[in-house]
Design a protein that fits this description.
- By secondary structure, this protein is of the alpha+beta class.
- Among the domains are: 3-310, no CATH class; 384-510, CRISPR-Cas system, Cmr2 subunit, D1 domain, cysteine cluster (Alpha-Beta Plaits, 2-Layer Sandwich), CATH 3.30.70; 570-757, Alpha-Beta Plaits (2-Layer Sandwich).
- 57% of the residues lie in helices and 11% in strands.
- The chain is built from 41 helices and 17 strands.
- Strand 3 and strand 4 form a beta hairpin.
Length: 903
């Protein structure tokens, strides 16, 4: 038996968009089983807590982590599994989950609390001395069962494809249009909103409040977990089966793993709220572990949050017309059947042909993605509780300026630090100050954190208090300015997201950026790494500020050191970190280093990637659940691409890609990889990002390559300029009325520049790749099938080095990856051929396509080299296939050959 699920952000199957599909309810059983395993693994930890409310709160946190971590952490190919396990250092997103899980434990175990409070500058100092003293190892020894829980929750779950699929695909409702809302985001947002509604009514400081809030959270997180099982029973029995009793039954099954530590009255209270959350039956007040708990109030709050989370009125108002037209039914009838529940509603929908329901679901999904953000329909909220909830957003300002440092490790440390702020410090400050649970975090990535929160009375005061918490976690490192804004939640989620975006933009305009440090005496020496602050110490003759000193420690120990040591333990890297420390870029370039000597380095590539029109994509979510799901899909899409890249590599190249991935969050990535891998790696990454987002968004990528000794920031700036060129090219040609077509056909935009004689500079991009440059077609677009005249076809260039003529898009991308990796000799000949063609063409008065054809023809006739003859003919054909309207891109071909040669 299968049910229908709709996808506002479509899935991909054989490079074809899937807007609606059937899903087996049985496939969701993996989620309760996983939760049961997590509960079982938490037993040792629970045994160390005394109070029932503390134990319940920890279990609620574990449920949230179980539902989010598998789709927010980077998927791991088997070859990196043990590397990650042995890294001993928590990445910022892992650090957040460990802190949240251990919050209750830390309140009664001061030594654990002290470890969780260690600021990042101290972590770097510790890591530089001994990895045995890193927090993960210390906590694993301090906290019973933490190591097993960490492996299950934060390592093993990443590899479970069936778990990830269930978390992302199972709908919250089976009716057309409403089945585009997914069950897991709905559970998370319902719990978040219910918690805020409770906190708005009373402080969560006394024992009764703690007990009630923990019971409310678990009830909300599991209130619909039995829906898939109930849907299966409905089909078997031929009548609608209520899901609430099934949810209560599954909840009791999960709690059977910890019944030794959770009292029966607590489990009964939770199951009673879940079982009756759609009925008006009074549950009264019950004693749980000796504390009176108002179950009626908690059930009422869950019901209000359930309605608000679903945004049912808004989705029904939006999709009714589309569904009615597709089904050929009366609009009012469809509205009623979408709003009501009951056996007659179930029979109405089950009487419809499956193919018709699939088509109605598909049309509704397309409407919600492409047209809903532009339509404004009349909305009757009917929900007074929404006035108690706000949406809070923070944005780190001046990220690029903050990262700008003249030293590689300091720059990497600054990039790591931004990640630390976004994924750990800022979300932690939200939770600590507002006393909200982790499910309130909607999105964290790219310097932005978005969350549900109580109504904020004073944003200035809130921001000031949050910055205090953040600074405590940063230690001696001064964070960049962080801007905060909030707005009340409305049932119109698109309006809410636009309002918060506008308020944040206004606040950023008013608040000044932190500029150069004021130097009162005029005799201070500026820091040689950042140039913004005064130097206070000399390190090997270099005058630097404290900020750069500690950021350098972070980059050295927390990024490079931790990863290289773990790779060395798994024999992916031959040299130990101490021997590699001073030659990181040379090693990242792809050359093998030997202890005590430095081989001649190959060239290294700086890669910057960013999604196209992602702000509009995220802001276009139709509901809170849709917003959560979109953020999860974006985050996973980039990390899936990185994981697929890792799976294609082995040995030191795998280690280089892993260590050289400096930042990957949301739709934003920065990496330093061997130049010989950069182009094919960028295509692999782009394909999977596009595929995991269902072909509705793609990456633009800029790549600058040169010698490892070149100025780091100049290389990074050049990559950034190339990225901007790619993004602008897409914006300039993408017709808003045909955006769905453009996105589904273009999976990558790429611009690249290579120099092994001079440091590449951003100004080169304007000169070398200027619009009137006859020999460059960049930026290049990589298409699924159809092509657009204003965006050059990237496949035409890579076809010089490998066959891309046949196969599915996935197969072609994989062939390019393998083909370019093995094409060093062909690339060498291509370099010579393009150079010869250019030199011959330059001597002619006409430098257009006719001159290139003449040059190629004469060279072709004179050459006895079969490979060279083949390349000359392909260059001629490029001129001819363009209708003699533009010369062949011999500059791009020359640059491509240099990349593949890597030297």
């Amino acid at each position: 038996m299968r049910i229908i699920s709709g996808y506002v952000v479509p899935l991909m199957r054989d490079d074809r968009q899937i807007w609606a599909d059937t899903v087996d309810p049985e496939s969701f059983e993996v989620v309760p089983r996983f939760l049961s395993k997590v509960f079982e693994s938490s037993s040792k930890l629970l045994s160390q807590l005394d109070g029932t409310s503390e134990r319940l709160n920890m279990l609620a946190d574990l449920i949230v982590a179980s539902l989010r971590a598998p789709i927010t952490l980077t998927p791991l190919p088997g070859s990196l599994r043990e590397v990650i396990r042995k890294k001993t250092l928590l990445d910022p997103d892992e650090q957040f989950w460990i802190w949240e899980i251990l919050r209750e434990y830390a309140e009664t175990h001061r030594e654990v609390d002290e470890v969780l409070k260690v600021p990042i500058d101290s972590l770097a100092e510790i890591a530089g001395q001994s990895f045995e003293r890193m927090p993960l190892k210390i906590l694993a020894n301090m906290v019973p069962g933490l190591a097993d829980l960490y492996d299950l929750l934060l390592i093993d779950s990443r590899e479970d494809e069936s778990l990830r699929s269930a978390l992302l695909k199972m709908p919250a409702d089976t009716r057309p249009g409403l089945n585009t809302s997914k069950l897991i985001p709905h559970l998370l947002s319902t719990s978040a909103l219910a918690s805020i509604l409770y906190l708005s009514s009373r402080a969560a400081s006394d024992e009764r409040a703690k007990m009630e809030l923990s019971i409310l959270r678990i009830s909300s997180l599991l209130h619909d977990i039995g829906k898939p099982r109930a849907w299966g029973a409905s089909v078997r029995e031929g009548t609608g089966v209520p899901h609430a009793p099934q949810s209560a039954f599954i909840t009791r099954e999960i709690f059977s793993q910890v019944q030794e530590f959770i009292s029966e009255d607590a489990i009964d209270a939770i199951c009673s709220i879940i079982r009756e959350h759609h009925r008006r039956k009074s549950l009264g007040t019950r004693n749980v572990a000796g504390i009176p708990v108002d179950l009626d109030k908690l059930k009422s709050l869950l019901t209000s949050a359930d309605r608000l989370s679903s945004s049912v009125d808004r989705l029904v108002a939006g999709v009714s017309k589309t569904v009615a037209e597709t089904l050929g039914e009366d609009l009012e009838t469809i509205k009623e059947m979408l709003e009501r529940t009951g056996d007659d509603v179930w029979k109405f929908w089950s009487s419809k042909p499956n193919d018709l329901l699939l088509r109605a679901t598909e049309e509704a999904a397309k409407y919600l993605l492409w047209k809903a953000p532009l339509d404004r329909w009349s909305i009757e909220t009917g929900l007074s509780d929404q006035s108690k909830v706000s949406v809070l957003m923070s944005d780190i300002r001046g990220i690029q300026g903050y990262i700008r440092r003249e030293d590689l490790k300091t720059m990497i440390g600054a990039s790591y630090f931004i990640n630390f702020l976004t994924l750990y410090a800022i979300p932690r400050s939200f939770l600590e100050l507002l006393r909200i649970p982790p499910e309130c975090i909607i999105y964290a990535g790219g310097g932005i954190v978005l969350a549900f929160a109580p109504i904020i009375q004073s944003e200035e005061k809130l921001g000031s208090e949050m910055v205090k918490i953040i600074r405590r976690l940063c230690g001696k490192i001064t964070p960049p300015r962080i801007t905060f804004a909030s707005t009340p939640l409305t049932i119109d989620w698109i309006l809410t997201s636009r309002t918060i975006g506008a308020k944040l933009a206004a606040r950023k305009t008013i608040a000044p950026l932190e500029g150069l440090e004021h130097r009162s005496l005029g005799i201070e020496v500026p820091c040689e790494r950042c140039g913004r602050k005064s130097a206070v110490r000399a390190i090997e003759g270099e005058y630097i500020c404290d900020e750069c000193y500690y950021l350098g420690k972070v980059g050295d120990a927390l990024h490079f050191g931790a990863k290289v040591r773990a790779c060395h333990e798994e024999k992916l890297v031959k040299l130990e970190w101490d021997a590699l420390r001073e030659h990181v870029l040379e090693w990242l370039s792809g050359r093998e280093l030997k202890a005590g000597s430095v081989a001649e380095a190959a060239n290294v590539a700086f890669i910057k990637a960013d999604g196209n029109m992602m702000g509009a994509f995220l802001a276009g979510a139709a509901s809170p659940s849709d917003a959560i799901l979109r953020s999860l899909r974006v985050d996973y899409a980039l990390k899936k691409g990185i994981s697929e890249l890792y799976s294609k590599l082995s040995g030191e190249d795998l280690a280089r890609a892993y260590v050289g991935t400096l930042y990957a969050g949301g739709d934003d990535m920065l990496a330093i990889w061997p130049a010989k891998l950069a182009i094919q790696a960028a295509l692999m990454l782009s394909y999977w990002f596009w595929r995991e987002l269902g072909g509705v968004r793609q990456l633009s990528i800029g790549i600058a390559a040169g010698k490892p000794k070149y100025n780091v920031w100049a290389m990074l700036d050049t990559a950034g300029e190339l990225l901007d060129r790619s993004k602008k090219a897409f914006r300039d040609v993408a017709d808003p009325s045909k955006l769905d077509e453009f996105n589904s056909e273009i999976f990558a935009l790429l611009a690249f520049l290579y120099s092994d004689t001079h440091v590449p500079l951003p100004s080169w991009v304007s000169e070398v790749l200027r619009p009137d440059q006859p020999y460059s077609w960049q930026p290049l677009a990589f298409y699924k099938k159809f092509k657009y005249d204003k965006l050059a076809d990237g496949w035409a260039l890579v076809s010089f080095l490998t066959d891309v003529s046949n196969g599915s898009l996935k197969e072609r991308v994989e062939k390019v990856f393998q083909g370019l990796s093995d094409a060093a000799e062909t690339a060498r000949r291509l370099r010579e051929v393009t150079r010869d063609v250019y030199e011959t063409t330059a001597m002619l008065a006409n430098k257009g396509e006719e001159a290139i054809i003449m040059s190629c023809y004469s060279a072709y006739k004179a050459s006895r080299d079969v490979l060279a003859q083949y390349l000359y003919k392909k260059i001629c054909n490029m001129c001819l296939t363009s209708g003699l309207s533009r010369p062949a891109p011999i500059l791009d071909l020359f640059l491509l050959s240099k990349f593949i040669m890597g030297e």
